Amino acid sequence: MDKISVIGLDLAKNVFQVHAISENGKTVLRKRLSRSQVRKFFAKLPPCLIGMEACGGCHYWNRTLSGLGHQVGMMAPAFVKPYLKSNKNDRNDAEAICEAVQRPSMRFVPLKSPEQQAVLHLHHARQQLVSQRVALSNHLRAVLAEFGICLPQGTNSISQRLAGILEDGENELPMLTRYLLAELKAEHDQLIDRVKRLERQLKSWHENNERSQRLETIPGIGLLTASALAATVADGEGFGNGRQLAAYLGLVPRQASSGGKERLLGISKRGDGYLRSLLIHGARAVIHHVRRRLKKGLPGGNPWVEQLLQRCHVNEVAVALANKMARIAWVLLTRQETYRLSRGSA
Length: 346
What we know:
The chain has helices at 35-43, 58-67, 77-80, 90-100, 114-145, 155-167, 175-207, 210-215, 223-233, 242-248, 273-295, 303-311, 314-335; strands at residues 6-10, 15-21, 27-34, 49-53, 71-75, 253-255, 264-267. It is of the alpha/beta class. It folds into three domains: 6-100, 2-Layer Sandwich (Nucleotidyltransferase, domain 5); 114-207; 210-335, no CATH class. Strand 2 and strand 3 (27-34) form a beta hairpin. It is globular, with a radius of gyration of 26 Å.
């Protein structure tokens, strides 16, 4: 058998598919492996280039196969799809991966360390708990509204006022409804406590991570955004410049250009939607601070944002500022610097 040069590995939970070619591009092996066979199979092979899609478990297998001496390239599934020649199945997917990983212009996903993955999973778990809390609070308000009781917005209103409503004997709430509301309130309070515990874990990690602390010096970036950026981007070397990071976060315009005529649309919304939302929310906080100061007759503190507000909608300004924050974050990570206020800013 010819020497294996490139391998396309289709990842799965239990069944893995291998497509291997030689240096002259000839297919030399097509093999189906179980999870327990993968490490043993690659341990016996000489070092070669292995391609895989960026999906669940890819970072683990990247670290495992790299430790065996192989060169591993992870690619977004959207970049592999054009190389699929026929119907979708494991064999064809592995062949498409093998073809895509050899392209000189292919863009690869940077490898994440176990620590980075752990921090990001804390973020995702917190986001899930917050979504559950919002859904539960909406349910509580809807039940109360059916009996003519309306609570103001905010998490504290449920924790502080619902107990008094349940104890009030003149609001005509049925006993079954009181029991239901008491159960829902207990679950609501439990979700709040769980979110706070996760935030304490994130704060502890942030206080011991230099990159995250440097990112927090950027106006509009707080604990959550800084820790998520530091865990996702690491040292920023996976991006050639700040615009590439902004494009990865979906903060650059989509294009529909043809015939030499450029046509720019709204933002692409590609990539990491969680990080994008954090940056845009942080940008809105900066804009709110600037507008509040301007209403009081004080300097806004950010001349660039002030000029944009005069000619653009506030939502456009928020996205533009989020884009700028992403670029600044890339500079701080790659140059290992701390944010410095520009002249005229406060």
